[in-house]
Every structure is written in structure tokens, then in C-alpha cells.
Amino acid sequence: DLGFKSLFMDYHYFGYRDYADYYRNIGTTTAPNYVAGWGQHGANASYNDGFLPMAGLIYKLDGRSQIFASYAENTALPKGLDDIYSVVPSTGALAPRPKAEKSRNFEVGIRTNQSEFYGALAAYFTKFDNRIAITAVPLAGSTVLESVYTNVGRVEAYGAEFTGTYKPSFLNGLAYFNLNATYNHAKFKDSLPNGTALAGKFLPDSARWIVNGGVTVEPASWLVANFSGKYTSSRWSTLANTAGSSVPGFTIFSAYVDIGDGITLGPVKGVKARFNLDNVFDKDTLSYISPSVTGDGNFRPQSPRTFQFTISGEI
Asked: Quick check: is 105 in a domain?
């Protein structure tokens, strides 16, 4: 298959961009002198690309297996466009219009659908231009984080992904197993204009390995149980990969049980119950990362062991 798409995107912004548009303090903290702000501002931007090619190829090895390949180009509005157009504290000038994010994606792989096994293995290579990175800066005197958007230029990523499901016939449909494994190698190709060295550094909050796997048991039509685990390898918390800013890898396990298959209790029909247990072994680790440029990032811990019960039905 061969084709292309065209994207024509217009962006319009008008209003108060920040507190300084309402009023400003031209004095000091101890002797403030408040004056009128910069006022409302408007901004317009157009992002047009009339030719974004795409191509796909499928070759059937037999009735159950295929080799596939694809290529696609994409463009998108810069992430956080409203925030990028925010006010510069010392002036009422608009920030320069950010460039559109662009990507070129290559993928090749093989997939098979056998009587007991489904699996797919794919390798990919992606090139980004004008990639917008999001970092977090603490606001002075508070614990609130302010998002900052930075054009980090070119980024290249390559890797592979495997997904598979195995349902052995000797278990007579009682249980099946699933596995998803991803390897991702993503690095900056440019450094920042201010001299911060990013070229050759890994993207923050981007694990090289993520592995999900589990087993699902269905002993009856009204009972389904699952136990699964997810491994996330180490990640950097800074764009510059500052020494000591790496977060160790961790594994989290979870489980659930679904009970009910159209059970009727009096006037209530289709009664179902679900039990969820997240972080089964109560793993204490840093999970969510808000990256910084240098130094160290900001973190939130993994939620502790959590149990949830849900019951549903219809009248």
C-alpha cells in the first residue's frame, strides 16, 4: 500500500497568558509597587504539510504467518503550545512561534497466529525533528511544579517489541499466558543553544526495557482470575543524564478476579463483581518522574498495596 496525507493546522490564542498580564510589581517584595499588567494578547500560528508519505507491505508466508513493513511521516502541533506562548516575566513580548514536531517512522516485523500461540515481533527506527521536551521546575516557596517546554532538536530512537499469547490445548482452555517485552534506545542528537550538553544522552523517563507478563485462569464461564507483573528498567530523571539522577528499575505485581456471568438477583440483572489488588507485594519505589534539565528530577512514589472491590448490575 502506498499513500500520503496532508495536514493543515491553524492555531489561535487570545487572552491573558499569565499573572503578569493582569498586574505587575515594579517595586520590591518588601516595598511593592503594583501597576497594570501587559494586558491581553493574541497569537496565530499555522502548521502546514501537504505531503506526508506512508507505505505498507505485507508478505504472507502461509495462511497463518506474515512479514510486514511500514514507513510513515508525521507532523504535529508542538506539545504544550498554550504554555509555550506564555508571557516572559520581564516583558510583554510573545515567545517566538515554536516549530512543528516531525517524525519519520520505520517498522519491520513478523507475526503468526497458530492454534495455541499468537506472537508478533517488530523492530522500529524513529527520527524526530524539533522534539519538545517537558521538564518541571518547582515554584519558589511552594511544592507546585511548573511545566517548561523546550525544543531539544533531533531525537533518534530504535528498538524492538514482542507480544505473545500462549493457550496450551492440554489445559482445555483453563488458562493462558501472555507476554509483552519492549526494548527502546532513545537519545538526543543535539545539545541546547545555551550550551547544555544533551547530544548522545538518553531521553529522561524512558526505560530501555519494559516487560509485562501474566497468567489468566478461566475455570468457569462466570469466573476469571489474573496475576501479572511488570518490570521497568532504570530511567534517567534529567535531560543531561546528570550522575546520580538515575532511578533504579523495579517490578510491580497485580491481580484481579472477575465473578459473574449474567447473574440475576431479584430485579437486578447482569450482576458482576470485580476484585483488584494492585502492588501485591507492597513495593516501595519511585515510579512517576517529572524530569529536570540537570541536577535531579522530581518524583512521586509508587502507590502502596491497594485493594478495590466493584459490583455492578442493571435494573
From this structure: no
